[in-house]
Fold:
Amino acid sequence: MSLRDTLKGIVESVEGGIAAMIMAYDGIPIDEITVVQTDLDLQLLTVEYATVLKEIKRAVEVIKAGEMEEVSITANQVRVIMRVLNDDLFVVLVMAKDGNFGKGRFLLRLKSPELALELG
Structure:
């Protein structure tokens, strides 16, 4: 299964799923899929959140809390779940605020090893 197919499967399997993407910590998107059109600028959202995630990753290392695995951010309109794939990349799921957050987290945890393997 291709990266895009895997991402699409994740978004379509989550009630309230909007988009998913694989991003580098420098904000460069590797692949992405948008299933539901939105007024939000998803590119800008993920680039800005990549910066936040990089800072959180550094803080986790400084306090020696172990390896960062997942971060979620809830705003008025959306929830964003970000899960680490490797030292350079992470996967992002953007969903409606009232979407199925638990299932989104579960699917990212389930599919992350597959995505990491596909990325090499």
Q: What stands out?
A: The longest helix spans residues 42-62.
